[in-house]
Design goal:
Blueprint (H helix, E strand, L loop, with lengths): L11 H4 L6 H16 L4 H8 L5 H6 L3 H4 L2 H4 L3 H8 L9 H14 L12
Amino acid sequence: MEINRNQFFSSKWVLKGHPYTKRDDVISIVYNLLFLMDPTNSWFEKYMQVPYKETIKFKLQATSDDLCGGERCGCLKEVYKEAYSYALNEEPNYGKMIHILKKELMLIHCVPDRIFSFL
């Protein structure tokens, strides 16, 4: 299978060769948010040091604790778990994910304001 996306932000399902679905879009968004919130996250640093041929294996072994550890990314742990809980062709519950994200952001004192009005 050819991956025409960055495997760094691709879901584990796509890396395993499953068809790309809406669920994978949500998972990719979570990886992007994780990276934007903390590009120095230790998991990302380790990932970048792994030889290219081993990166998929390394990513497939990652857990929510590996990716969402630390102060900055901890708020995305529940969103990450929710994104990976969907079956292959299951429609993601965007409302639930937005609710989880807002709740978690408020816990770290990132109070929703106009920036979150699109949610």
